[in-house]
Design goal:
Blueprint (H helix, E strand, L loop, with lengths): L6 E2 L1 E4 L27 E8 L5 E2 L8 E11 L2 E4 L27 E3 L14 E2 L10 E4 L4 E4 L7 E3 L1 E3 L2 E2 L2 E2 L2 E3 L8 H4 L7 H12 L9 H14 L4 E2 L12 H7 L3 E2 L1 H14 L4 E8 L2 E3 L4 E5 L3 E10 L8 E6 L8
Parallel strand pairs: 2-7, 16-17
Antiparallel strand pairs: 1-12, 2-3, 3-4, 3-20, 5-6, 5-18, 7-11, 8-12, 9-10, 13-14, 15-22, 18-21, 19-20, 21-22
Helix pairs in contact: 2-5, 3-5
Length: 335
């Protein structure tokens, strides 16, 4: 069995605005207004070993704190995963972390009374044996996110662990949690009327070398690269102009070509689905400022972000499981 390095996340959250966070659905692209540029602190994230040794990410690495996922896109709007499911009120405990070396303990302190969905580095597992574990947070298998289950105390303390960081790097290929394995039909649902989106995705894949077209990983990365690296699209923090008579995604891809991370993540997710590649959109937080005195990352409202996740087979031939491939299609310049 492969050895895992289990990393822990310590989060202190205080949120004053939910204009766009990883803990609530993003507003529809044609109605959202502007993304908050507030410098107000929303999270403090720290990583440490079992021996309380702080862990700092390697240079150039950015945090990616997963909040909630989205399943269905219709008329320019996303619906939260499992929002209509009867499972959305059935809460379960997190599974224990995989066995392995270099286990790192994680404690999370939440200060906001308004925050229901709890962000963190994915995948999430419960605390190690002997640690307090997850006390006031449970996994919602319908919504597929960690949620608070009490009466919103001012200081909510809970523990989780993760295998999403290794040797100071944030992994872009992570395990699928047993409680977070949506059906393929959900991950490939695509509006049939969006023919231009489907044709664009096909054209991008057809331009790939023939030797790479058979790989789901390569096709997914090619579609991501088209949005991120083609220089045909620009990042905008303000609400761009949209044609009112067409779907906002069509407007983004074929007309104005300006948008924020939600627009880029929506485009990639639906381009992937149009080609039968199982994918979903995710919102949360990206980045943060390292505080050397407190040895934590400070995450602000302006770090609110969205990206895409693709479900793929484990590339290790010795493992029969599935992985989430994390893809960020938003160009770096201007984010």
């Amino acid at each position: 069995m492969l050895a895992f390095r289990v990393i822990a996340v310590c989060v202190v959250a205080s949120i004053a605005s939910l204009i766009f966070t990883g803990c609530g659905p993003p507003a529809p692209p044609d109605q959202r207004g502007t993304i908050s540029l507030s410098a107000e602190e929303v999270l403090r994230v720290s990583f440490r070993t079992r021996n309380y040794e702080p862990i700092q990410l390697a240079n150039g690495e950015e945090l990616l704190l997963r909040g909630v996922t989205y399943s269905s896109y219709k008329n320019g709007e996303w619906e939260l995963a499992g929002e209509r499911s009867s499972q959305s009120t059935q809460l379960v405990s997190l599974n224990g972390p995989p066995s392995g070396d270099d286990v790192v303990v994680q404690e999370i302190t939440l200060e906001s009374q308004r925050l229901d969905h709890l962000p963190g580095v994915y995948p999430l597992y419960r605390g190690l044996d002997g640690e307090p574990g997850v006390k006031d947070a449970k996994w919602n298998p319908g919504l597929r996110t960690l949620v608070r289950v009490n009466d919103r105390p001012i200081h909510l303390v809970y523990c989780t662990t993760t295998t999403g960081i290794k040797a100071g790097k944030v992994l872009d290929l992570v395990d699928v949690m047993p409680q977070d394995n949506p059906p393929n039909s959900e991950l490939t649902a695509f509006p049939p009327e969006m023919t231009r989106v489907k044709q664009l995705a096909k054209d991008v894949i057809d331009s790939m070398p023939a030797s790479k077209r058979e790989s789901t990983l390569e096709r997914a990365r090619a579609l991501c690269g088209y949005l991120r690296n083609s220089r045909e699209f620009a990042v905008s923090r303000s609400a761009p102009m949209r044609e009112p008579n067409i779907d906002p995604l069509d407007d983004f891809l074929f007309e104005h070509r300006r948008g924020d991370s939600k627009d880029f993540a929506t485009a990639l997710t639906l381009m992937l689905r149009s080609q039968g590649i199982p994918a979903r959109m995710v919102s949360g937080y990206k980045g943060g400022e390292w505080n050397s005195l407190g040895e934590f990352y400070q995450v602000r409202e302006l770090n609110a972000y969205a990206w895409a996740e693709v479900q793929v087979a484990d590339p290790d031939p010795n493992n029969a499981g599935k992985k989430w491939l994390i893809l960020d299609p938003t160009p770096t310049m201007g984010r």
